Amino acid sequence: METYQNILVAVDFYEQSDEITNKALALSKMYKAKLNIIHVVDNLPMLDSGYGVESPFNMDLITELMDNAKKRIAVLAKKLQIPSDQVWLEMGSTKSEIVRVAEENKVDLIVMGSHGRHGLALLLGSTANGVLHHAKCDVLAVRLKAE
Ligand code: AMP
Questions:
Q1: Is 135 helix (H, G, I), strand (E, B) or coil?
Q2: Orientation angle between helical segments 94-104 and 126-134, nearest 10 degrees
Q3: What is the mean pLDDT of each run of 10 residues along the chain (147 residues)?
Q4: Among residues 126, 123, 147, 145, which one has the least CA distance to residue 10?
Q5: Cβ distance 12 to 116 under 8 Å?
Q6: Phi/psi class of residue 81: alpha, beta or left (left: φ > 0; alpha: ψ in -120 to 50)?
Q7: Range of the domain at 62
């Protein structure tokens, strides 16, 4: 049986993120697979006015968001002993970036939560749903329950 060689875990840093990363780490050890980690800073909303498309946010805020995300993912990567060339911090559409990074790096398993900050009201969160529909590799949606 073919086993997984290259795993990508997607983190949003909300509650229960540890449950997802711990499972991804255990799988990577079990399969002796490379473990990558990704966080995506969501697309910022754009205002499409009659005078053109503008971002209501200033560059300082965007830089601050990226800097904070960079620090948080670095701490997590260190904890999981993931080398820096396997750490992905992207900006854009979350599901598209997860799928793109997975494809470009020949990832064979994406590990993510069934739900994140978008709540437990849906059967499957919107990011998880989008990745499941578009990824070409296997996707493990770790079932997260209300605490
Ligand atoms: P959601 O479908 O948005 O409720 O989130 C489901 C899972 O998608 C989360 O548990 C994370 O594994 C992943 N995810 C959500 N947002 C992000 C993000 N901004 N960056 C990376 N992974 C994310």
A1: coil
A2: 40
A3: 92 90 97 97 68 66 88 96 97 95 98 76 78 97 78
A4: 126
A5: yes
A6: left
A7: 6-143
Write down the pLDDT at residue 30. Answer: 97
Q: How many residues appear in the chain?
A: 147
Query: What is the number of domains present in the chain?
Result: 1
**Cα 74–chain centre separation:** 14
**Gap from CA of 52 to ligand 1 centroid (Å):** 31
Which atom of ligand 1 lies closest to the CA of 16? 10
Tell me the CATH number at 30: 3.40.50.620
Site to probe by mutation for ligand 1, drawn from 36, 97, 127 as the one with most ligand atoms within 8 Å of Cβ, is: 127
